[in-house]
Amino acid sequence: MPGVDTLDGLLRAVTEFRTDDYELPVEKAALDRARRSLEETGLLLLGEVHGVRENPLVILGLMRALDLTHLALEWPEDLKPQLDVYLADGTGLDHPLRWLGDGRVTAGHFAMLKAVPELSVTLFDGGMFTGDWSQRDALMAERVLSARIEPALVVAGNAHTLTSPTELGLPMGACLASARPALKSVRIQYGSGSFYNIEPRLTKGSATVAGLYTVDEELFVGLPEFGEATVPHLPFELLRDRLGH
Predict the structure, then answer these.
(1) Is residue 115 left, alpha or beta, with left meaning phi > 0 and alpha meaning psi from -120 to 50?
(2) Over the chain, what is the mean pLDDT?
């Protein structure tokens, strides 16, 4: 389904997203390694490609398998008051920052958030894009650490959850690992499917194993097949007017 541009459409998609029958396949060695990261550092990272329908299910599966109630998301921190309203009564989804269309926010996320008992959510994107990629990641890492939400699953785009420097710069994961060296990052490995990031996109990866597993001490969640998320997305001009810019 392409991006949705009405509140009624988003609410309908949230209602139709099923979470009760999902179970994440888990390899014991991988689960033990993930638990050690939480025990030794208080955190576990999860890297995703934004706009995949199954991403929230992976989050839910890991939260359940690890008995977690604290979740941190790469969403604009200004959305926190409205998110609290949504968790309380199911409203508050009309804030324009939810409708950017980049795939971070999906109907499945809202369904997933309701499915975790006693959930506490932290949002760590400051929303200010200065053009300095490493600076943004450093600030996101600072927000995660200052939130003091341990133990928590920290979810961001997979370029941000790497624990060593990359060609883009110094990722959030590397900043966090510098402060907490035993930190582990789980990377979602995708197979063939579609995702929505500003527009529908197709991709073909190499994932053949489903669920949480480990290879050479690295952690992965395999999604051999996946689909396009329902993403709230409004035209730029309308968003600019609603944000007052």
Answers:
(1) alpha
(2) 93
pLDDT for 92 equals 86
* Unique residue bearing structure tokens 């966090």: 176
CA dist 117 → 44, 68, 102, 153, 225 (Å): 19, 10, 27, 15, 28
As a whole number, mean pLDDT of residues 125-132 equals 76
Of 185, 159, 161, 163, give the one whose Cα is nearest residue 174: 163
- Residue 136 phi, psi dihedral angles, 5° rounding: -60, -45
Domains delineated in the chain: 3-243 (3.40.50)
Q: How far, rounded to the nearest angstrom, does the alpha carbon of residue 80 sit from its chain's CA centroid?
A: 15
CA dist., res. 159 & res. 172, Å (int): 9
CA separation for the pair 223, 58 (Å, rounded): 9
φ, ψ for residue 189 (rounded to 5)?
-100, 120
Q: If you search the block for the tokens 């760590």, which residue do you land on?
A: 124
The whole-model pTM stands at: 0.94
Cα torsion 28, 113, 135, 160: sign: positive
Q: Please write the tens of the pLDDT for every residue from 58-103.
A: 999 999 999 999 999 999 999 999 999 999 998 889 888 888 899 9
Q: Is 38 within 8 Å of 169 (Cβ atoms)? A: no
Residue with tokens 């689960």: 31
Please name which of 26, 46, 41 lies closest in space to residue 151, comparing C-alpha atoms: 41
Read off the tokens for 150: 């341990």
